C-alpha cells in the first residue's frame, strides 16, 4: 500500500503590514513533494482555511536556480493544487502516514492557533504516524497538545527557523513572536546549526524537523527513511 503524506501550507498573504507580502516559501513544498513523488507516495495539501495558498514573492526570486519550483509554477495542474487546498475539517488523519508542515512567514500567523490542524496533527501522532516540519512550519506545532494535555514538542528535540535567521532576514521587528523562544518555553529541546542558514535536520523518534528553507529535500528524505520502517 502506498504511503500517504499530508502537506500543510499557509493561507496568510501578508505581514501585519499589508504592504509586506508573504505566504508559502514554495521550495519547501516542491522539494519535499519531489522526494515523496519519486517513491510513489500519495500526497495532498491542506491549509487552515482551505482554498488558495499565496506564494511568498521572495521565494520566487531566491534562489533563481530552483528548477523544481520553476517547473511547478509552469505546470497548471500543480498550480491548481495550490488554489484548491483542503480544509483540516475535511481530513481523516487515519488516512495519512505523515503530516509535513511547510513554512514561509505566513505560517507564523495562521498555524499556531488552528484547533482543527492541531487535532489532525495529534491524531496522526497518536496513531504512530510521523509529524514533521521545515523552517517556519514548526509554528504549527507550538500549541499542539496530546491527549494527556502535554505539548507534543515537550521534551523532544526539534529545530526550525532560528531567531538569528529572522534578524538576518531583516524581519525580526515585523513578525508576531520569536518562534525559537516560544518552542523552548513549551519544553522543546531546540537545536540549531552552528552557523545561520546551514544544514540542520533533527529526528527524534517520529518527529522530524528541518531548520531553514534549504532543507525540504533533506527533511523529506528522513521522513521517507522512517516510513520505510513503519
From TrEMBL:
InterPro entries found in the cross-reference section: Class_I_gatase-like (IPR029062), DJ-1/PfpI (IPR002818), Prot/Nucl_acid_deglycase (IPR050325)
GO biological process: methylglyoxal catabolic process to D-lactate via S-lactoyl-glutathione
Keyword Lyase in annotation: yes
A GO molecular-function annotation: glyoxalase III activity
Matches recorded under SUPFAM superfamilies: Class I glutamine amidotransferase-like
Keywords: Glutamine amidotransferase, Lyase, Stress response
Highest taxon listed in the record's lineage: Bacteria
Residue span, DJ-1/PfpI domain: 27-218
GO cellular component: cytoplasm
Pfam families cross-referenced by the UniProt entry: DJ-1_PfpI
Signal peptide start-end: none
PANTHER family registered for this protein in UniProt: GLUTATHIONE-INDEPENDENT GLYOXALASE HSP31-RELATED, PROTEIN/NUCLEIC ACID DEGLYCASE DJ-1-RELATED
Family the entry assigns: Belongs to the peptidase C56 family. HSP31-like subfamily.
Protein name per UniProt: Type 1 glutamine amidotransferase domain-containing protein
Species this protein is from: Gluconobacter sphaericus NBRC 12467
Organism ancestry: Bacteria, Pseudomonadati, Pseudomonadota, Alphaproteobacteria, Acetobacterales
Amino acid at each position: 500500500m502506498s504511503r500517504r503524506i499530508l502537506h500543510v501550507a499557509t493561507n496568510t498573504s501578508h505581514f501585519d503590514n499589508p504592504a509586506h507580502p508573504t505566504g508559502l516559501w514554495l521550495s519547501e513544498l516542491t522539494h519535499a513533494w519531489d522526494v515523496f513523488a519519486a517513491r510513489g507516495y500519495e500526497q495532498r495539501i491542506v491549509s487552515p482555511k482551505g482554498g488558495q495558498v499565496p506564494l511568498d514573492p521572495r521565494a520566487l526570486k531566491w534562489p533563481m536556480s530552483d528548477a523544481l519550483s520553476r517547473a511547478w509554477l509552469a505546470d497548471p495542474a500543480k498550480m491548481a493544487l495550490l488554489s484548491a487546498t483542503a480544509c483540516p475539517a475535511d481530513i481523516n488523519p487515519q488516512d495519512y502516514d505523515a503530516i509535513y508542515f511547510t513554512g514561509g512567514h505566513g505560517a507564523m500567523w495562521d498555524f499556531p492557533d488552528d484547533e482543527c490542524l492541531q487535532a489532525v496533527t495529534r491524531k496522526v501522532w497518536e496513531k504512530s504516524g510521523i509529524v514533521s516540519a521545515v523552517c517556519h512550519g514548526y509554528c504549527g506545532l507550538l500549541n499542539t497538545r496530546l491527549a494527556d494535555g502535554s505539548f507534543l514538542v515537550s521534551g523532544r528535540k526539534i529545530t526550525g527557523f532560528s531567531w538569528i535567521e529572522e534578524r538576518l532576514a531583516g524581519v525580526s521587528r515585523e513578525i508576531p513572536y520569536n518562534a525559537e523562544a516560544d518552542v523552548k518555553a513549551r519544553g522543546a529541546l531546540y537545536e540549531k546549526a552552528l552557523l545561520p542558514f546551514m544544514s540542520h535536520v533533527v529526528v527524534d523518534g517520529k518527529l522530524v524537523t528541518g531548520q531553514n528553507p534549504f532543507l525540504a529535500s533533506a527533511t523529506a528524505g528522513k521522513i521517507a527513511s522512517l516510513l520505510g520502517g513503519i
